[in-house]
Design brief:
The protein has 440 residues and is mainly alpha-helical. The protein contains 23 helices and no strands. Helices cover 74% and strands 0% of the residues. The protein is globular and about 70 Å long.
């Protein structure tokens, strides 16, 4: 039955609001992890199941959004122009994030006083990451963008592979005339179906957040933060300052407030906080950016690409952690070596999508190319990586949202009036999404 046919929607109870449900679930997960660590660790399947449910929908959503956006764009040269603008923005802001991580590490010296001997560390916990890092050469990474077959991209769920297939399909459909128009219409209808499915899955976000948070606290323990607490605190503060100062300045130049934008995506931020993965809200971000006045074509290109090429939080984490490990192991770094780290990290960070733990793999890959710092020292960070992955994912999410609006404004297709109204009255802007959820 269509929910809109039953008359005006009654006022919602406070306990039915999604972000409040997620907040309560996170608090309960933390409590369970502290009071009953073994039981909390056993809740891991709840978080894994929710992430898996969302992840299975990402590939079809990206495909439908990108293909329909390109097919209806008209001028194919605009596709290349939008992509180029996005990549330029990503590279500039990502490099700035890498430099800020180095700068903060040099100013605060979070690793001084640890005097770690890498030879005495238990490196068994990082063996998997080191192996993955050694296999991640630049040529292998570029070739990995090409899937084994058209459907292999969807089977693996690799964002860059899906994006490549989607762009090629969108270009092909745009050149098919009337037949292409009918195909684009069918793909748009399929996309609406997939978003309906996601609306159903998102209602289970509190359960997923509860399970993931209970596991994190139960398995790793809050006490694991004590010895490395200063590094974690430094990373969180640096990320907050990056969002407020750097992204805030960019947002202001683009004509909106970063604080209003954060309030607008608060539901998604809380889900990411609970699951430690920004992929869990990728479909929701596509819809929310469109409601802010950005075109479907720009959103469809920038959001998926940004998940691999615009990882501000991961970049800050990488360079700050490298400086920490260098200081903790007594490894001096010259200014030239620090510039080299930024250059290497700018390459290795590409393709680290929102999957939990991807940031740690890219850190291992960077250290493997920078031999001055013993890669065994990574073992020091294993116990706190889960706590830092949450901040990485949150910062990445905000950065990609801002990037989408900037590129859309840069392209001249951002509806400023819609943007201003949605950010001033986020509850009204989100009414459409709530109507869909209620309907299903």
């Amino acid at each position: 039955m269509d929910a809109t046919a039953t008359g005006p929607t009654p006022p919602r109870r406070w306990y039915s609001i999604l972000y409040l449900q997620v907040l309560i679930a996170i608090a309960l997960g933390i409590a369970l992890g502290v009071l009953a660590p073994q039981t909390g660790a056993a809740m891991k399947p709840l978080g894994d199941a929710f992430v898996a449910l969302i992840r299975m929908m990402i590939a079809p959503v990206i495909f439908c959004t990108v293909v329909h956006g390109i097919a209806t764009m008209g001028d194919l040269s605009r596709v290349g122009r939008v992509g180029l603008k996005a990549l330029v923005y990503f590279e500039v802001v990502s490099t700035l994030a890498l430099a800020i991580g180095i700068l903060v590490g040099d100013l605060l010296h979070p690793g001084v006083g640890f005097d770690i001997d890498p030879a005495k560390l238990n490196t068994q916990a990082i063996s998997t990451y080191v192996t993955a890092a050694k296999q991640d050469s630049i040529s292998a990474h570029l070739l990995a963008i090409i899937p084994g077959s058209f459907f292999d991209a969807f089977a693996k769920g690799d964002l860059l592979q899906v994006l490549l297939v989607s762009i090629l399909s969108g270009i092909a459909v745009s050149r098919m005339g009337a037949t292409g128009a009918r195909i684009a219409g069918a793909i748009d209808a399929a996309g609406q179906m997939f978003f309906r499915i996601i609306a159903i899955i998102v209602r289970f976000a509190p359960i997923g957040a509860f399970g993931a948070m209970a596991f994190t606290i139960g398995a790793f323990g809050a006490k694991s933060l004590v010895n490395l607490g200063f590094l974690v605190l430094t990373f969180y503060l640096t990320s907050i300052l990056f969002v407020v100062v750097v992204l805030g300045a960019i947002s202001r130049l683009c004509g909106f407030s970063i604080f209003r934008f954060i309030r607008y995506i608060k539901d998604e931020l809380l889900i990411v906080l609970g699951t430690s993965s920004s992929e869990t809200v990728l479909p929701a971000m596509i819809q929310k950016m469109q409601r802010l006045g950005a075109s479907t074509s720009v959103v469809g290109l920038v959001i998926p690409t940004g998940y691999s090429f615009n990882l501000d939080g991961t970049n800050i984490y990488m360079t700050l952690s490298i400086l920490f490990l260098a200081q903790a192991t007594g490894t001096p770094l010259s200014f030239e070596q620090e510039l080299g780290i930024i250059a290497v990290a700018a390459l290795t960070s590409k393709g680290a999508s929102g999957v939990t733990g991807a940031g740690f793999i890219t850190l291992a890959a960077t250290l493997a190319i920078v031999p001055a710092i013993p890669i065994q020292s990574l073992a020091v960070l294993v116990g706190i990586d889960k706590f830092m992955s949450e901040c990485r994912a949150l910062t990445n999410l905000v950065g990609n949202g801002v990037a989408t609006l900037v590129v859309s404004r840069w392209e001249g297709d951002l509806d400023v009036a819609t943007l201003d109204e949605a950010l001033r009255r986020p509850a009204v802007a989100g009414a459409a999404a709530e109507a869909v959820i209620t309907a299903v």
